[in-house]
Amino acid sequence: MAQLSRAVGIVLRTQNHAETDRIAVLLTPSQGRLDVLAKGARRLGRPGGAALDVSNLVEVIYYRRRGLALLKDVDLRRAFPRIKGELPRLEAALTGLTWALRLVPKGQPDPTPFRLTWQFLEGLETGTPPGPLKVGYLLKLLAVSGHAPHLRGCLRCGGEGELTWSSREGGFLCRACGGKGEPLGIKLVRTMQGLARLPLPALGRLQVAEALLEEIERLLLEFREVQLSR
């Protein structure tokens, strides 16, 4: 008889598989990313299928067969109705969970990304403004996954004058040390530093223009893709 295992996780993504099955990707504290195959989950009336909605916290019981984790049972632990009912919060949550999907490796125990993501979702649910919370979460997720950008001045000389952004070098790089392009505005530099430094619950107190947050997110996305391609 197959040995049963148990895990608690946040649903990062689901995708259809075969005719009636569904694969759920969970972020767990005990195994990093965990892919679970839910046989027959798309059949009408199948118990537990709705529990596997993206962002839900679930407890799963599963067993392994030929390397696959096959779902035996699922229990919904926490849903986030406010996130799902307000488009800006839902968009922020989906962006953050997509980043977790890219950055957290499969099968590596580390509770830190799980705790950070749980705190992010709780903040969205309880009313923290989604813009600063999302970008702060992305910065912190990069850090806990081993890809923190260098934000304390120029990564070569430590200076703070004429800083540019270098995804390939790993963060701020001043013009004198080879940085290319127009220097970043001081407001953008200080905002990035603040978002990275402050804990997630404190980010709701920051007043940051939406355009500035969008520019920081664009820089971080470019940085993530360059770092992960190495």
SSE topology sketch:
Blueprint: E1 4-17, E2 21-28, E3 32-38, E4 57-65, E5 68-78, H1 81-85, H2 87-103, H3 111-125, H4 130-144, E6 163-166, E7 171-174, H5 186-197, H6 210-228
Parallel strand pairs: 3-5
Antiparallel strand pairs: 1-2, 1-4, 2-3, 4-5, 6-7
How would you describe the overall organization of this protein?
This protein has a domain at 4-78: Nucleic acid-binding proteins (OB fold (Dihydrolipoamide Acetyltransferase, E2P)). Helices cover 36% and strands 25% of the residues. The chain is built from six helices and seven strands, in the order E-E-E-E-E-H-H-H-H-E-E-H-H. Strands 1-2-3-5-4 form a five-stranded mixed β-barrel. The chain has a two-stranded antiparallel ribbon with strand order 6-7. The mean pLDDT is 92.
Corresponding CATH superfamily of one domain: Nucleic acid-binding proteins
Radius of gyration, in Å, reads 20 Å
Q: What string gives the helices and strands in order?
A: EEEEEHHHHEEHH
Reading off the top of the CATH hierarchy, the class of one domain is best stated as Mainly Beta
End-to-end separation: 42 Å
CATH architecture term of one domain: Beta Barrel
The chain-level mean pLDDT equals 92
Fraction in beta strands:
15-25%
Helical residue percent? 25-40%
Number of helices: 6
Secondary-structure content class: alpha+beta
**What is the approximate shape?**
elongated
Which regions have little confidence, pLDDT < 50, spanning 5+ residues? none
Q: What fold name goes in the CATH topology slot of one domain? A: OB fold (Dihydrolipoamide Acetyltransferase, E2P)
Beta strand count? 7
Strand arrangement across the biggest beta sheet: 1-2-3-5-4
The description of the largest β-sheet is: 5 strands, mixed, barrel
